[in-house]
Amino acid sequence: xINITATPVHTLDSPIDHLNACHRRIEERLNTLERVxxxxxxxxxxxxxxxxxxxxxxxxxxxxxxxxEEESFFPRLFxxxxxxxxxxxxxxxxEHTRAESIYEELKIHVxxxxxxxxxxxxxxxTELAAALCDLYRQHIQNEDARFPALASRALSATDLDxxxxxxxxxxxx
Length: 173
Ligand SMILES: [Fe+2]
Ligand SMILES: [Fe+2]
Prior knowledge:
Layout: H1 15-35, H2 39-42, H3 44-77, H4 83-112, H5 119-154, H6 157-170
Helix pairs in contact: 1-3, 1-5, 3-4, 3-6, 4-5
The structure holds fe (ii) ion (FE2) (2 copies).
């Protein structure tokens, strides 16, 4: 079995590249959440195992990813960017909060589903998974479109070293 919670250490030395690699891993998990929805009734054991595995990833790597952005990148960027760019970062924070709230709702729904899930459980699961996927895919697109260029321009090598150190500490590496 693949350990989906593992963090590839090599990209932690290049924090901006690491964010990009994380986005690709998050997209894979979002695809899984959507893909298993039709199988919740026909193959519920396997579908639920896949969902739980995605939840473990988000609870660990997803939380670290948001902390990397909000606690390591954003505070260093804020004093060095334009007012419009600060607004862009504030918008990303709002998206994080929205995604966390839908994710929590999805987790509660999965925890409370009948075993095996009923048709109504599947309908609600599909709605919540779609809402999370739509929001987070758009969020990733927003970040990919501007964040790497903004961070590369505004942060010094010393900043990036500091961010890399914090990212490793966050993962106890
Ligand atoms: Fe983000
Ligand atoms: Fe991100």
